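retry 2 of 3: previous attempt timed out while embedding flavin mononucleotide. Reduced batch size to 1 and resubmitted. Inputs unchanged:
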Amino acid sequence: MSLLNALVTGSSIAPQGQDYDMIRFICMSSKPILARKSNTPKLEPKEFCRACGKFATGVTIATVTGQDGTPHGMTANSFASVSLTPPMVLICVDHRTKILNDFLRSEHFAINVLSEDQEHLSRHFARSGHDRFDGVKWYAGETGAPLLPGVLASVECALVKAVVAGDHSILIGEVLHAAYRDGRPLVYFGSGYQRLAAHLPGSSNSSTIG
Ligand SMILES: Cc1cc2nc3c(=O)[nH]c(=O)nc-3n(C[C@H](O)[C@H](O)[C@H](O)COP(=O)(O)O)c2cc1C
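retry 2 succeeded.
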């Protein structure tokens, strides 16, 4: 059963313009976690983005199989690990992203961590209005989720929870399979692609877990 089915409910909240209005947001507390005080100065979006841009991240392609069986993917640097036991990760997806519904309707998704020579894939999977898998090599992982060859790491997950947070949804997945290899990551910092300094070695091992 997909998470979407599992969360079918009479009461619903739906982000503007989105059609997954059956998703239920389960509030853990009667009070909002971050209640804005009325006298809090408004943070300009550009300033917020600039501040967040000071946080260096890797770059991933989050992938999923659509209801029609075709692969879909999007560039995402919001990837983070969440829990060790059980192993869980998250990504945050903008509500305007067309494949959000595919993530919500599928039992599994995958995270492909890009290596420093895969900047072209990051740009390709962030561009709208084309079939992103047209001409791109991929293979089905253990869960059936699409995986990209040559990545530094891949993580296959079962979607366990989707939480609406502002204009994004946080997708939380339990990790079922993980693999990684030696190499150097693609880095995103200050709104641009970066590489690790040349003298820093990539880790020198590889493994398949799960
Ligand atoms: C380096 C980079 C990181 C990104 N990270 C995210 C992310 O974490 N979440 C997100 O929703 N969009 C992210 N995006 C933007 C999406 O990739 C892009 O908006 C999306 O693929 C557009 O999909 P659409 O054509 O379905 O609207 C990122 C883009 C880039 C270039």
